[in-house]
Amino acid sequence: MSAGPAGAALEPGVRADPEQALLWVDRIDKVFRVGGSRLRGSNELLRAVDGVSFDVRKGETFGLVGESGCGKSTLARCILRLIEPSGGRVFLGGTELTALDGGDLRRIRRRMQIVFQDPYASLDPRMSARAIVEEALVIHGMGDRAERGARAAEMLALVGITPAQILRRPHEFSGGQRQRIGVARALVLNPELVILDEPISALDVSIQAQVLNLLRDLQERLGLTYLFIVHDLVVAEYFCDRVAVLYRGAVAELAAPEQLFRTPLHPYTVALLSAVPIPERSTRKRRERIVLRGELAPVSGTLPGCRFQPRCPLGRDREVCASQEPPLAEHEPGHWVSCHFPGELAAARAASAAP
């Protein structure tokens, strides 16, 4: 079965073609119960991820962008089964991850790893750099002590940590070096898929470029596939092969960067792009920023209409937007959008900016 670029829903029992995609996410949901007490419980539901589907092809970098609280990290943890999804399925190379338990799940986790956002909190301060990287090999029972130490040292050298540094503890490293240790820890098991959960957001700008270049080099050398969570649209445009824009737990728009950033179709994407700074010496005209009213709010229960409608410059007074949720549909080849009026806001802004 051949699925669309946005990860068309897989029929029961169908497996993705491993020649086309490494990761398939099929209608993933994550619902939390909120409020109340531990004894009484709660009937209020918080829908953090709402029916998300997409595929990640071998060797590509697939980006997830959106405001804080839109569900990016929750979705990533559902994919890895670090938290259990409430519904939907995840396939890695044709194997359904959401159907695995115990030893089977532990074995397949060698094939998928994560680099966390905070290089300060994600490393054990009591362990040396070598021990941190070696720990994954110990957990999976790989090699003897000498082999594990050599493998850890090899991976640390690959990310730029010298032999003289490998016995140091995290507090003796800079933020960029700590994140390099986190990358080495993720790669020591030879994974196929690496989830990068905002890996540069806690770093200085100059260090961000170094880490991104390192990740790009490692991807080419090791044949890695990345799921890259990021809130910086400039970084997403530079680093990703395709980008999905999330809003309140669902995909608002999905396309290659040259489509998404040149011809955005969803009003939310247009608003995000309007906030990207333009250099003062740029010859391009200044963009008028779209200030969205209200704040991002997670979906609680079931609401009618488009989830962006309360903040949308177009849909706030349109009945169809208030009453019907737009499906994620392919507007043009490779460019998917969930909007009743795709491209209208971008066209209106372009017309108003014309001389």
Biggest β-sheet description = 8 strands, mixed
CATH class: Alpha Beta
Shape: globular
User: What is the β-strand count?
Assistant: 13
Helix proportion range: 25-40%
> CATH topology, which one?
Rossmann fold
Mean pLDDT: 87
Low-confidence stretches: 1-8
Number of domain units: 1
Query: Distance between the terminal alpha carbons, to the nearest Å?
Result: 49 Å
Structure write-up:
The protein has 355 residues and is of the alpha/beta class. It is 30% helix and 21% strand. The strands form two sheets. An eight-stranded mixed sheet has the order 6-7-8-3-9-10-13-12, sandwiched between helices. A five-stranded antiparallel sheet has the order 5-4-1-2-11. β7 (193-197), α6 and β8 form a beta-alpha-beta unit. The longest helix has 18 residues, at 205-222.
How do the strands and helices of this protein lay out in sequence?
Layout: E1 23-34, E2 44-56, E3 61-65, H1 72-80, E4 87-92, E5 95-96, H2 102-108, E6 112-115, H3 129-139, H4 145-158, H5 175-187, E7 193-197, H6 205-222, E8 225-229, H7 233-239, E9 242-247, E10 250-255, H8 257-260, H9 267-274, E11 299-300, H10 319-323, E12 329-332, E13 335-337, H11 344-353
Parallel strand pairs: 3-8, 3-9, 6-7, 7-8
Antiparallel strand pairs: 1-2, 1-4, 2-11, 4-5, 9-10, 10-13, 12-13
